[in-house]
């Protein structure tokens, strides 16, 4: 099924609550080391992972590049986002954009792309018999890209409309501002949407220069998951991507993001009915050993079937509508983001109470083992419940070939550890003491970036 051209959707850091959940569940995928897997590096530097998954007659191919808003400057802010659109819809040296769309339709494919702070990812799903087309299509649009000024100008209109959609959606706007405020002075403090003026003024020569720098073999990883024989798929990948010339990845190493030294708070008035509060806290990066405890802690506090944070926030008067929490792990820093929707008049109180409640997470009891005697029988085991929810989410991700391929590409491009633990094994070893240590390290100081969005004055 082909839907991308017919319905364009915003792809900023987070697309509201639903995307926040999706990102929180995009758990790191670690290799199983069985005969369904093949991992290799082409002579030109492209990293490849193949995983046979024969339950459905589908093949999912995801190609990622180590380029995101972190690689932009004030002068190029927004070019990655614009480039992503142009690659999907504006054609190559051999096919027009209309030809690409027609080919995708004809082969029964779905394709999409996603821009983030770290990576740009392009995916396509096809019937298993069309695997060769999927590989050739991705090679052509990603390594044979070409663009004219007229085509860029046409795509700008779509991007600028996405700016409007983001700014009109209180959840998108608040999340974007929180993540910018959380990393001041670091490239992560630049919006994935980019700068409206930079996008509006973008020139074809600047776009192509940016593309030629980052969309190279040494900066690329490919994952294919689906109904194929590993040997046959490896042959296809080598045949199609192997002849590409070798080009080293650009040396864009960045420093770790420095945590906030003190809290910052913004309040925006918009044409909304409810009040929205978003809090961002510095968290461990993708390769940190703390990520496992923070994953569980986030599930315990703000997700799962019985999250603890809503209980900590409720007073005699039920003033909460929704509470959610997500952990986003990027290469140079991570973020814990708390989102609250409530009556606008209660937002200031909830901001103070939420920060204060999260400070106490370092001294909470999370497991039955934290209690003694009869109390253990009646205590709710937040720890084990959270682990079960994570195992369930991991299983769901494992069932989705496309999500699995995306996780593999993310792992190939972001992982820097020589011997990372298996994800679920590491989650299983987390105990209450680990949760308290993580809460003490990342939440107890209370330093956060806060954004609240409330109705305009006089609005009923």
Structural write-up:
- The chain has 460 residues and is α+β, with helices and mostly antiparallel strands.
- The chain folds into 2 domains: 16-20 and 28-241, Cytochrome Bc1 Complex, Chain A, domain 1; 264-455, Metalloenzyme, LuxS/M16 peptidase-like (Cytochrome Bc1 Complex, Chain A, domain 1, 2-Layer Sandwich).
- 42% of the residues lie in helices and 18% in strands.
- The strands form 2 sheets. It has a 6-stranded mixed sheet with strand order 1-2-6-3-5-4, with helices on both faces. It has a 5-stranded mixed sheet with strand order 7-11-8-10-9, sandwiched between helices.
- A hairpin with a 4-residue loop joins strand 9 (320-329) and strand 10.
- Helix 2 crosses helix 5, helix 4 packs parallel to helix 9 (230-241) and helix 10 (291-302) crosses helix 17.
- The radius of gyration is 23 Å and the shape is globular.
- Residues 1-30 have low confidence and may be disordered.
């Amino acid at each position: 099924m082909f839907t991308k051209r017919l319905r364009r959707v915003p792809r900023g850091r987070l697309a509201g609550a639903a995307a926040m959940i999706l990102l929180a569940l995009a758990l790191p995928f670690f290799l199983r080391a069985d005969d369904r897997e093949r991992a290799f590096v082409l002579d030109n530097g492209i990293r490849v992972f193949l995983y046979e998954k024969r339950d459905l007659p589908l093949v999912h191919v995801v190609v990622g590049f180590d380029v995101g808003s972190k690689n932009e400057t004030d002068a190029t802010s927004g070019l990655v986002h614009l480039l992503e659109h142009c690659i999907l819809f504006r054609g190559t040296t051999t096919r027009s954009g209309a030809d690409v769309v027609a080919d995708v339709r004809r082969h029964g494919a779905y394709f999409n792309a996603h821009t983030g702070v770290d990576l740009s990812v392009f995916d396509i799903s096809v019937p298993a018999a069309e695997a060769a087309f999927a590989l050739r299509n991705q090679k052509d649009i990603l390594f044979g890209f070409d663009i004219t000024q007229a085509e860029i100008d046409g795509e700008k209109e779509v991007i600028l409309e996405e700016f409007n959609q983001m700014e009109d959606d209180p959840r998108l706007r608040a999340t974007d501002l929180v993540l910018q405020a959380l990393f001041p002075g670091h490239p992560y403090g630049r919006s994935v949407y980019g700068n409206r003026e930079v996008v509006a003024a973008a020139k074809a020569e600047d776009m192509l220069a940016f593309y030629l720098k980052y969309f190279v073999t040494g900066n690329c990883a490919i994952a294919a998951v689906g109904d194929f024989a590993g040997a046959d798929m490896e042959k296809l990948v080598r045949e199609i991507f192997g002849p590409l010339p070798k080009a080293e990845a650009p040396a864009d190493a960045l420093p770790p993001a420095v945590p906030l030294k003190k809290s910052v708070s913004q309040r925006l008035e918009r044409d909304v009915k409810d009040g929205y509060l978003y809090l961002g806290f510095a968290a461990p990066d993708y390769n940190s050993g703390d990520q496992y405890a923070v994953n569980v802690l986030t599930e315990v506090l703000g997700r799962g079937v019985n999250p603890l944070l809503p209980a900590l926030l409720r007073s005699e008067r039920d003033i909460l509508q929704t509470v959610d929490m997500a952990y986003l792990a990027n290469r140079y820093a991570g973020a814990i983001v708390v989102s609250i929707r409530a009556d606008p008049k209660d937002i200031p109180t909830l901001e103070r109470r939420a920060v204060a409640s999260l400070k106490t997470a370092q001294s909470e009891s999370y497991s039955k083992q934290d209690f003694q005697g009869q109390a253990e029988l009646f205590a709710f085991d937040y720890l084990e419940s959270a682990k079960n929810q994570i195992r369930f989410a991991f299983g769901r991700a494992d069932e989705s070939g496309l999500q699995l391929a995306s996780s593999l590409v993310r792992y190939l491009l972001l992982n820097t550890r020589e011997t990372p633990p298996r994800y679920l094994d590491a989650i299983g070893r987390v105990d209450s003491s680990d949760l308290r240590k993580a809460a003490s390290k990342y939440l107890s100081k209370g330093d956060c970036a806060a954004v609240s969005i409330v109705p305009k004055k006089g609005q009923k």
